[in-house]
Design brief:
6-stranded mixed beta sheet; about 30% helix; elongated; Rossmann fold; single chain
Length: about 350
């Protein structure tokens, strides 16, 4: 993960654009008033990114498929999610707002049902779990009419923990649903006793008849208020959201004298690789003759020629720098009394 945007108006730069190339006026000297040379603009970097949207809600309603989550949301808010008596009626999160007073509201998200193996992507898997990460409090609804409500409760808790241990540590409310059905009413005492033995105080309700729903959402609201107070105490300081772009820019401004050379014996080809050289070759406008002379000077100054000769480059070998391919020639150097090898300006298109 590169970064997260968690607050309104936050912005981050991931990729900096390429700098513009210099015109011929930048290369003017006292002896050359009208230089025939110019640069191309620098190409911008590229990157494949996966953008992931996570709902930011105060309360997330979790539970197994068909536990009554959407019905509960429709009862406590004005939201109208799809409701039916079969699993996975909810395929996308639904949002609703609960109003307590004139200035007290709470955003509640009804999230798709959770199957065993969801932390590995089974069912709606990660599509469901990623949204729970941004909820402050969870309301865990258990289907009281299922054959094993305790097993269903433990299975969902395990999936949350397997996906992210932080999810298992979030404050939550357990709501035992469908008390209007005889089988749920019969299972309630044993379910309640089992959870109380673990230190968890569950609520019972019937979302269909709205019986007990107010107690559940009120308890969740109290947890939201407590959690908000704790968050205010530990708000982190400002974070540099442009660090990805800074890192990319640092890589692109690598010194031109930092390079590596490799040799392919079968093709007699030398590869000179370096971010600085790559950038220089890309920005060089080869339509101007003076560009080749400047390129030769840079190769000499940054040590490429010296390194090639030390490694044993020979007459006729191919040398590739960036996207350009050149041929090495032995030629006398008239700058000194001794003869040494020199890279002739002969490009291969």
């Amino acid at each position: 993960m590169l970064l997260e945007l968690l607050r309104p108006e936050q912005r981050a730069m991931l990729l900096p654009g390429g700098r513009g190339g210099r015109g011929n006026a930048s290369f003017k000297t006292g002896t050359n008033k009208v230089p025939k040379i110019a640069e191309n603009g620098e190409e911008g970097p590229e990157m494949w990114l996966e953008l992931e949207l996570k709902l930011v809600a105060d309360v997330g309603i979790v539970g197994a498929p068909n536990a009554g989550k959407s019905t509960f949301l429709s009862v406590i808010t004005a939201a109208q999610p799809a409701i039916a008596n079969y699993p996975f009626t909810t395929l996308l999160p639904n949002l609703g707002v609960v109003s307590f007073d004139y200035d007290a509201t709470m955003v509640v998200a009804d999230l798709p049902g959770l199957l065993e193996g969801a932390h590995q992507g089974f069912g709606l898997g990660h599509e469901f779990l990623r949204h729970t990460e941004r909820c402050s409090v969870l309301v865990h609804i258990v289907d009281g009419s299922s054959q094993q409500p305790e097993y269903e409760f433990d299975a969902v808790r395990l999936e949350l923990e397997m996906f992210s241990p932080e999810l298992a540590e979030k404050p939550y409310v357990v709501a035992y649903n469908k008390m209007d059905l005889p089988e749920a009413s019969e299972n309630w005492p044993s379910f309640k006793e089992s959870l109380q033995a673990r230190g968890i105080e569950p609520f019972c309700m019937s979302a269909a008849t709205r019986n007990g729903t107010h107690e559940v959402i009120s308890s969740a609201y109290e947890l939201v208020r407590e959690n908000a107070a704790n968050k205010e105490e530990g708000i982190p300081g400002p974070v540099n959201l442009n660090y990805v772009a800074d890192m990319m820019q640092k890589q692109r401004t690598a010194p031109i004298n930092e390079f590596e050379i490799s040799y392919e014996n079968s093709t007699k080809t030398w590869h000179v690789v370096g971010a600085g050289l790559q950038r220089f070759v890309q920005m060089t406008n080869w339509r101007y003759k003076d560009s080749e002379r400047r390129f030769q000077h840079v190769l000499e100054a940054c040590g490429v020629n010296k390194s090639l000769m030390k490694l044993g480059v020979k007459e006729g070998d191919t040398v590739i720098v960036g996207e350009m391919e050149w041929v090495w020639h032995d030629a006398p150097d008239t700058s000194g009394p001794t003869s040494r090898r020199k890279w002739a300006a002969e490009s291969v298109e």
